[in-house]
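We include the pair:
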Amino acid sequence: MSSSPSPVRSTTYADAGVDVVAGDRAVELMKASVARTHAAPALGGVVGGFGGFAGLYDVSALRDYRRPLLATSTDGVGTKVAVAQAVDKHDTIGFDLVGMVVDDIVVCGATPLFMTDYIACGRVVPERMAAIVDGIARACEEAGVALVGGETAEHPGLLGAEEYDVAGAVTGVVEADELLGAERVVAGDVLVAMASSGLHSNGYSLVRRVFADAGWSYDRHVEEFGRSLGEELLEPTRVYARPALGTLAVGGVHAMTHVTGGGLAANLARCLPETLTAVVDRATWTPGAVFSTVRDLGGVPAGDLERTLNLGVGMIAVVAPESADAVVASIERSGIPAWVCGEVRERQDADGASNGKSVAGGVALLRGTHQGW
């Protein structure tokens, strides 16, 4: 006697963990934030608005360039997103993303034009996704870059329901004969430091480990910070794009470096020719309380600290000595503390090998002791 086959259970995409309706709702909530970045682009403008398969940007203005070079960078935020998830605050992490990519092209003198982002998550929570994108959009407005598109991907089973990661890419343009870089740097140039806003977006694996081992919760009030630990760790990365590019009108700026992974010395060496050494005087500034707290609480060796964290300097401009005061004044008018922190000299045998993150470059040496350390 034959039996009828058992009915197949109906399985939907939602059963598999992907909520298309929530995804559509998230996109709808993002629209206003993204549209704000299209109002005043540096050059050209966004074509076609929001929601196409590809972001379109009008670059007709590049016909007026003598020899335009496109500059591009891509990056993420790293494990700082774990702090945002733990604290359940998601509207500032976008500044970290924009700062990481935009300021990497600004250092060569490029004007950022447009950016795209990518958010992968375990579960789409529309309000959370909208908060992330709103932060990205506000940072894009600050940098003068258009957010032309992005992608939100739901990955159930790969990421936890409350987990997400973000990445982005930016494109900019610079005249070939105005390109900043090592070939412009000469002995006698001075180093102008631009203060960081805090940890920025590097070294969070070390930082999170230090505070976890010490048993510090993110809601713990820290007197030295004047706020909770979570608030301090989520201080947004400073976006230097407009102030840094503003120094070019002053003249005498030869190169810049963005102090990210690897610390000050390794990143500074990347913008020097092999024949030169940059000498940084630690005594010209005092790192913020968060840096000394990480050092003391975790017993982190000084060398490890300097190779991992920015220690209070987020960007350095290498400038002609006669332009230093004007460059400092230009940066400070934008509300960013700036100061001369060292100089460039001929390289000596005793200086050692390049410390430029495994790329060709000069040598950067840190001398002296930080004030108050």
About this structure: The radius of gyration is 23 Å.
